[in-house]
Write a structure and sequence with these properties.
Length: about 260
């Protein structure tokens, strides 16, 4: 947690990111995949890097026993007010929980805030340590070309600094957004299984969360209309694991189980 990263998240933008606009597509698709892949409730879920509790909230409502860890005090304070959620400060690389104590571990943010591969593998290794045999880990990553796609979609590609940063990320995975000052890591989809394997998860399932739909100019209209939203989510579910389409999504969700 660098001072720049803490300052960014201390602006308290994270709570709204998945509740408004096209960010809702990422939220609803993450919810959809997790509801199909997590062990049934009641089960113990450790939400690592869970922010303000956007996912912890619905997991608790679904009957899970949820503990949230996050390195940002503002996030922990907000999450701690949620019904059925316990929250405390924590680092994905040093989980303050006992061995084999969790039914599921979520890493829905930490991996793209760890630019060093060794740290990402360490976070996944810690998740494996915390899981009981047969438990599930689900980790989100940002895809390598997401910044180019996003800046074209938003019009920021017209700005030279934004354009250069997006292409730098597409080249080596290191994304330093102008004005933020902290690095993020954007994965090639096919490198994610290798990091999981090095952490003791040889078999993974991969899900493209948004497909190409997050880039559509009228995506907000589709998400606002309940009937159209169901059709959109069903459409992406039908192609969520097609290998040739995984990298088009802004985010990839990778799921694995701890062996016995």
């Amino acid at each position: 947690m660098t001072p720049e990263l803490l300052a960014y998240y201390d602006q308290d933008r994270e709570d709204a990111r998945l509740r408004e606009g096209r960010g809702r597509l990422e939220f609803w698709r993450t919810q959809d995949v997790l509801r199909r892949t997590l062990p049934p409730a009641p089960a113990r879920v450790l939400d690592v890097g869970g922010g303000t509790g956007v996912h912890a909230e619905w997991l608790s409502a679904d009957g899970y026993e949820v503990e949230l860890l996050d390195p940002v005090p503002r996030h922990v304070g907000r999450a701690a007010r949620l019904t059925g959620v316990t929250a405390r400060l924590g680092d994905a690389r040093r989980l303050p929980v006992a061995d084999a104590s969790q039914d599921a571990v979520l890493l829905l943010g930490p991996l793209y805030h760890l630019p060093d591969r060794a740290d990402r593998v360490l976070a996944l290794t810690e998740a494996r340590r915390a899981l009981r045999p047969g438990g599930v880990v689900a980790a989100a990553t940002i895809n390598r070309h997401a910044a180019v796609h996003d800046t074209i979609c938003t019009g920021h590609y017209l700005q030279e600094r934004e354009r250069e940063a997006a292409h730098a990320a597409a080249t080596d995975g290191i994304m330093i957004s102008p004005g933020r000052g902290f690095p993020a890591y954007f994965h090639e989809p096919d490198e994610v299984p290798g990091e999981f394997a090095d952490a003791g998860f040889p078999d993974v399932e991969r899900y493209g969360l948004e497909g190409a739909f997050w880039l559509y100019g009228d995506i907000g209209d589709w998400l606002d209309d309940p009937e159209r939203r169901v059709l959109l989510l069903d459409a992406q579910r039908s192609m969520e694991s097609v290998p040739s389409l995984l990298g088009v999504s802004g985010h990839l969700l990778t799921v694995a189980r701890r062996d016995q």
